[in-house]
Amino acid sequence: MAAAQAQTELVEWEPSLPRTDRVRVRAHTCVCASPIYELCAAGGLGFVRRSTGESPTITDESTWLSVRAAEDLWWRILGGHAR
Fold first, then answer.
1. Does 60 fall in a domain?
2. Does residue 30 sit within a domain?
3. Each residue of 9-61: pLDDT tens digit?
4. Range of the domain at 47
5. Is 59 among the domain residues?
6. Contact, 52 vs 5, CB < 8 A?
7. Which of 19, 51, 67, 80 ranks highest by number of CB atoms within 10 Å?
8. Is 15 exposed, middle or buried (0-12, 13-18, 19+ CB in 10 A)?
9. pLDDT tens readout for residues 56-80
10. Which pTM value belongs to this model?
């Protein structure tokens, strides 16, 4: 994952809630470094999940978006343009 850029977009993270029975993790960052990010899909929508801390982990989610918009957010996070 890239370092934060000078003009970094701040993502509005919200506590993770059980909104659906199934969430598909489409991609994830390495579990060796915190925070861990996951690109997720559920119910035709996408979002990014962020896990921080040791045990128990604290899990937050981005706003649920269209899959394309969630993928765009994912790449901005990985590129250091959003956090």
1. yes
2. yes
3. 999 999 999 899 999 999 999 988 889 999 999 999 999 999 998 777 889 99
4. 22-78
5. yes
6. no
7. 51
8. exposed
9. 788 999 999 999 999 999 999 999 9
10. 0.88
